[in-house]
Design goal:
alpha+beta; 4-stranded antiparallel beta sheet; 4 helices; 35% helix; globular; YneQ
Length: 109
């Protein structure tokens, strides 16, 4: 279940991804498989080769890419989410979702 974003933010992310750019979209999210995790950042790109390379360059296993067309994406959660958002200067997302304080555990992917 996704919440905490508006239609304009989702549309902007979809446009970026469709153009073959790496797009970041953070939102609140609850999933019983990940207790204590309340946000996810979807890193998307319609160019799967580019997205696979981005994952590899950031220490992420490309096998976990959700190949959902037309918006393939990798879900970042936990410490890796915070690390990547900091690395790419996504300060607004870090602040907005309280991730600048995040100290949760990161799943093994």
């Amino acid at each position: 279940m996704a919440f905490g974003i508006n239609r304009q933010e989702l549309s902007a992310w979809k446009r970026e991804v469709s153009r073959g750019e790496i797009g970041f979209l953070t939102h609140y999210w609850l999933d019983d498989r990940f207790p204590g995790i309340t946000t996810v950042t979807k890193v998307g790109c319609s160019n799967l080769d580019k997205l696979r390379l981005w994952c590899s360059n950031n220490g992420l296993d490309p096998q976990y890419i959700h190949q959902r067309q037309p918006y393939p994406h990798f879900d970042l959660i936990g410490n890796k989410q915070t690390e990547i958002l900091r690395k790419y200067g996504m300060n607004e997302q870090l602040e907005r979702f309280g991730l600048h304080l995040h100290t949760g555990i990161c799943p093994p992917f």
